[in-house]
Amino acid sequence: MIGALLCASVLFSGFAQAEEEINKRLFKVAVVQAKDHPHGLGAQKFAELIKQKSDGKMKVMVFANGTLGGDAQVISSIQGGTVDMAMVTPGLLTGINKGFGVFGLPFAFNNFEEVDAVLDGPLGQSLLATLPNNGLIGLDYWDHGFRHVTNSKHPITRMEDLAGLKLRVMQIPSAVDSFNGLGANAVPMSYTEI
């Protein structure tokens, strides 16, 4: 499962806006995870860099811990213009383009090189190109693991270890069906519900 797709809203409806107005902007960034999670830390670093590179004219407010909602709510908020940016699980964008579902399939890739080749290649880029017609701009993909299963009961080293194990999975059919097919009891839920 690929971890995150950095999405942004179409920041301005018209291109006739003055550069001065663009340069004095406050951006709201939603992070579903905690502020000390890699997504939260990345968003904080992004905020620092924006402030530094714009000489303080542009600022980023980071809302961590799902303060602005779970992934689905955040996607809607970006489309509605109340949130400017977020890192979301690409698989949750299957309502926009079913092709994003490939990123919700467990064990689809063997290593980071394969993942990067798909994300940076024609498939990943063509999927990003479908977002603007839906009020989103995909800025980039961010790896967040794709071959690990975590739980609080026991280590997973063999397929049999999944038998009957209750697992939280992303709210996308490919993830639910895959883990149920492997013998787990897949429970779809937002990261904010963990």
From TrEMBL:
Q: Does the keyword Transport apply?
A: yes
Output the Gene3D superfamilies linked to this UniProt entry. Answer: Bacterial extracellular solute-binding protein, family 7 (3.40.190.170)
Keywords, sorted A to Z: Signal, Transport
Matching entries from InterPro entries are given as: DctP_fam (IPR018389), TRAP_DctP_sf (IPR038404)
Record's keyword annotation contains Transport? yes
Signal peptide (UniProt feature, chain positions): 1-18
Name one process (GO BP) from the record: transmembrane transport
Domain of life, source organism: Bacteria
Family indicated by similarity: Belongs to the bacterial solute-binding protein 7 family.
PANTHER family associated with the record: C4-DICARBOXYLATE-BINDING PROTEIN DCTB (PTHR33376:SF7), PTHR33376
Q: What is this protein called?
A: ABC transporter substrate-binding protein
Q: What organism does the UniProt record list as the source?
A: Pseudomonas putida
